Amino acid sequence: MQLTEQHIVAQLRNFGYRITNQKLVIIKNILNNPNSTAKEIFYLSKASAPNINLSTVYRTVRDLEKIGLLGSRNICFSSVC
To answer: pTM for this structure?
Structure first.
């Protein structure tokens, strides 16, 4: 099953997470660049949301992993995958 932004947002809301504009930008970038590192997602997201922090990207990725929407193999946390 292909994950969509709407499905991810609905699941996050079901688990009680707030949906911010920054989180939406991160989710879009993860969906469009599934093999990117967290740092690459950060730089891609920074272009759309200049006030975003790297910690926001890591927190969002952790939350997506916690609820089972993102596996540790879906996104890399270092430049070596």
So the answer is: 0.85
